[in-house]
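ok so I'm stuck.
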Amino acid sequence: MSSCRSSGIKTASSVISSERCKLISVHAQYTGGGDSTFVKLYDNTSASGKELIRIVLNDPASPTSPNCIEFDLHGVICSNGLYLDIESGGTTGAAVSVEFN
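replied:
not stuck anymore, here's the structure
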């Protein structure tokens, strides 16, 4: 049976892996109030280079985007590492878990 590693819950931007890896899935939950929070993953060890995913999370009262999401990436190869970028304003934020091999 195949398994994968987890970043655990992250609430701030961070390097998930500094080596080549496979991105399996992302779980994100909105934790703030007010403005949107943006969750991005990069094939890199910083918030630059190839952006692999962008998730916009909104207040649960907003019908325009989810406040909780699971995104399956089916093993996307990240050649240069994996970086999680959480961008928020004011009291917004997110709790994010990244699963990878």
